[in-house]
Each structure stands twice: as structure tokens, then as C-alpha cells.
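Tutorial, part two.
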Amino acid sequence: MKVALLQGGRSLERGVSLRSGQRVTEALLDLGHEVDVMDLGPELVTRLENNRPDVVFIALHGTEGEDGTVQALLELLDIPYTGPGVAACKRCMDKSLAKYILREHSLPTPDWVTYSEAAIRDFGAASTFGAAVDRVGLPLVAKPASGGSSLGVKVVTELEQIPNALITALSYDNRALLETWINGRELAVSVLGGDALPVVEAIPTDSNAYDFEARYEIGGASFECPADLDDAETAEVERVALAAYQALGCSGFSRVDIMLGESGPQVLEINAIPGLTETSLLPQAAEAAGLDFDAMVQRILDLAING
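Running the prediction step on this input gives:
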């Protein structure tokens, strides 16, 4: 099969994408596919038209690759691609929109307030930070409204820390969320072809948050898969994850990040195109389900072509 592998891009997650892409490329070659590795750029459409693939494997993360931009382009070219469609990518990329959709489907997600850079700069929204704290409580988490890999995320323990935390978050996006901090266990449920894979628990080694370094540096966190949950907890976490996946219209594969607190599972976000690096959670979950990396990649391709 002729496969175009899209990697890199211009987002802040380019490095992660290149690592995902390299690993997927090796798997595709091992599986006997013809692979054309492509980065985003002015020649992308020309290359796709001149060397038309049977399918595109999207190993892009962040802006343009994970927000529906590339997906919409591939649909215009009538080329099948891996992962969720345009609308689902847009919903997942916008964390605030995703949370509204989750609430509309009666799915648990931490309380939040969204601030735009314009509202703070032009409309005096900074005077409402106290009201935001009244709504979401302290401690809280400040994070960009789009993007992934925990870039720009800060834990806030005092009202006075909000301005600096928002400055950090808004350096990654023009909107940011202040979200209730949930004290609990950090879980991830990867969904492949509509089926929940074994739950992974991320246990940071040196900090209280599963940040960028913990996610992508070997040794930054330890992982347990399947997570040490009782049967009832596992069933509820998987139920919530699958319902979130369906509510946002995902298909192919995605990952649902959940915090398991005293009140049960809370959905933090849905990653439309999760990482596929050596430390990423989807491959770990697939392996626990009996799929090695090559088999998982082939399954993702099959879903893109056959649904």
C-alpha cells in the first residue's frame, strides 16, 4: 500500500510529531508499505497530487495538523486519512468548546472559565478574576484553550497568581481556561476503532503534574497499564471515556484524558491525534491489549480505509 506520512508541521508540538512520525514510518516499512514522508509546506498539495497515496497517516500534533485544517484539505483531495474527521478535530482542539459539548451530554468535566486575550486587554476582564475563583475554586489550573502536551499549563494556588499564569497560557493561544484542579489519579483511555483499550495511569516521578517533560522524556513518569483499579472503577472510567469520544464525534483512534477523584472520573480533554512516541500512552495501551506497535499502526490504517 502507498502511504503518505504527514509529520512535523509548524506548531509548538513539532518535535513530538517528528518523533511520532519516525516511529510510525519504521512500522509502515516493517509492514511492507511504500512510505512517502511529508512535512507541511507550500508543496504539500502538489506532492499529494503527483504521488497520490492510497491513504495518509497523520502523525501531526497541534495547530494545522490536529485542528481539522489538514483533514479538510485531504477531504477536498478525496484521499482517505487516519484519525478523526474535520468536525471532531475542531471540537477536540478547542478545550472550552469540548467541555460545553461534554456538559450537554451530561458527562463530567471540571468547572471552568474561559478568558480571551482581547477580553482582558480591551474589556477589563481582569476585574472578574475573583468571580472566576468563586466559580472554580482554588487551587485551579490555567491552560491554553487549544494545544496539547501540557504546554503553557500552570497550577494556581492564590488569586494573585492568576495574571502571570494567564500570561503564560496566552502565550500559546489567544484564549485560556481557568479550570478546577482535581486531586486524583491521572488516567488515559485510548480508543481504537470504537473500543476502549486498557486504562493507563501516569505517575509523575519528580513533580505533581504530568507536564511536557514527564510526557516525552523517558524516565519523566512511570506508567501502569492496566491501571490498578477495581472492576467497577474500570467500567466507569471506560464508560465515561467512550461516551466522551462519541460525544465529540471521534473516529479511528483518539485518547481521553481523565482525572479520577473522590467524585468519580472527570474528563479533562480529548486528544484527537495522540502521540505515538516511545513514551506515549496509546502504544502502551495497545500493547497491553495484545497489539504490538506494528499491529496497532496497521489497525489504524485499516480503520482509515475501511471504517
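The radius of gyration is 19 Å. In part three we will examine how such features are distributed along the chain.
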